[in-house]
Design goal:
The protein has about 140 residues and is of the alpha/beta class. It folds into two domains: about 30 residues; about 100 residues, Rhodanese-like domain (Oxidized Rhodanese, domain 1, 3-Layer(aba) Sandwich). The protein contains seven helices and five strands. A five-stranded parallel β-sheet has the order 1-5-4-2-3. β4, α6 and β5 form a beta-alpha-beta unit. The longest helix has 20 residues. About 5% of the residues have low confidence.
């Protein structure tokens, strides 16, 4: 007990940081990240939709074949375009995996249940030597 009193700031910091780590699991906001090989399996076995949320210039430099392009900024306005895919898994892709997590949260709020983020984004896809296309 004396230790806790003398180190109150450190104890409080430990509780706060632990709570921040647990919050995504408790709130249900955690997003499952897929490896490129897991994403490929989901695309082939369950006809998953690949949704690329990068900016137009990034998309033009190369994207996954068959992916749909809706930038993160436009996603909320254009959600109706992908409504018909609610029963299919959706793999959200960005450059490194950061924006895709945000997009996954928006999709879940919109009623999409099978939402995944490509861990490492297009960078991870390329590092796994998987193909990209520049065709629209």
């Amino acid at each position: 007990m004396e230790f806790v009193e003398q180190n109150m700031i450190w104890v409080a910091l430990a509780f706060v940081s632990g709570g921040m780590l647990l919050w995504p699991m408790v709130s249900g906001g955690g997003v499952e990240n897929l490896t490129p090989s897991q994403a490929t399996l989901l695309m082939n076995r369950e006809d998953a939709l690949v949704l690329d949320v990068r900016e137009t210039g990034e998309w033009s430099s190369g994207h996954i074949t068959g992916a749909r392009h809706i930038t993160l900024a436009q996603l909320e306005k254009r959600m109706s375009e992908i409504e018909k895919f609610k029963d299919r898994p959706i793999i959200v892709v960005c450059a490194t995996g950061n924006r895709s997590s945000s997009a996954c949260g928006q999709l879940k709020k919109g009623g999409f249940e099978k939402v995944f983020s490509l861990g490492g984004g297009i960078s991870g896809w390329s590092e796994a030597n998987l193909p990209l296309t520049k065709k629209s």
